[in-house]
Amino acid sequence: MPYDVIIIGGGPAGLSAALVLGRARKRVLLCDAGEPRNARAEQIHTFVTRDGTPPAEFRRIGREQLRAYPGVEVRDVRVAALSREGDGFVAAFADGTRAAARRVLLAVGVRDILSDDLPGLRELWGRSVFQCPYCHGWEVQDRRFAYLSPGPEWVRWGVFLTGWSRDVVVLTSGAYAVDDAARDELRRAGVGLDERPLRRLVAEGGELVALEFADGGTLAREVLFARPAQQQTELVQRLGLELDEHGFVRVDALGRTSVAGVFAAGDLTTPVQGALLAAAAGMQAAAGLNHELTVEHALSGDAAPARPPAASRAPGGTGG
Questions:
Q1: What does the alpha-carbon distance between residue 136 and residue 35 come to, in Å, rounded to a whole number?
Q2: Fold held by 114-226
Q3: Other CB atoms closer than 10 Å to residue 168's CB: what's the count?
């Protein structure tokens, strides 16, 4: 087979895994369809040494660093289908080409389901509407926050947001009842509660300025935090991988899925999401892949991958 691993997804998880596997002298094909989940974000945050880096620049740097490793190939192509053939897998690409590998690493993230039932949500996503305060809270600190809670179990998250602003209002949009204990916690934390059904988000100059409710009333707000439903990509769904109770791909500590030979890393495996976390998961999965492949090569009598020419290798070191 021409490749040891096909990595599907060129974000932080995929780039990190490709780097680890390239340094381990594995033959890797990194496939990137060019639709990053964080495309609407202006900057990546809480990633040490890369805080404030635009997502496109982060990917450019990652790809540039992969060029030092001859075993890593990057293609801007969508994987249309994935099938098992013999002891490995064959990926069929949208451009009509195919490639085979011993293993597959899924790093495709998840899809955020932005409902059109709330006009303005999709347009303001990544500008005034955010999911993660760790990623965006610093930039909007002390502004007027609203938090659209998806269910009664999430209402108390409004108290957590007071770490970034003391002006927080929790919204239920009339979808469920809030119990007395949660109401008391919000009151004690100084967090407001508005249970009226939302009609739309009001924007001026591309920024949120107010919420409009079904009864015609409005509430001035500058920032909305929301937790939209998430869905696995079609490719992941077709593979029939085991999912956990929340709909995320179930993996072990080294990224192995329920399908032998298929690994997964990043946002598709966990609701605790972020660029640095995805990159760390990519490294962990790559370590698991490398261990499996190295042992497999050795026990089968296969020759180890050829070392790159000395002129292309960086000086050795003792650190990771």
A1: 21
A2: FAD/NAD(P)-binding domain (3.50.50)
A3: 26
d(CA 94, CA 20): 27
CA distance 179 to 193: 12
Contact 153, 179 (CB under 8 A): no
Coil vs helix vs strand at 251: coil
Q: Return d(Cα 201, Cα 273) in angstroms, integer.
A: 25
What digits encode the pLDDT tens for the residues 160-204? Answer: 999 999 999 999 999 999 999 999 999 999 999 999 999 999 999
Q: Tell me the DSSP string of 89-121.
A: EEEEETTS-EEEEEEEEE----EEE--TTSTTH
pLDDT tens track for 100-133: 999 999 999 999 988 888 999 999 999 999 999 9
- Fold category of 3-110+232-312 in CATH: FAD/NAD(P)-binding domain (3.50.50)
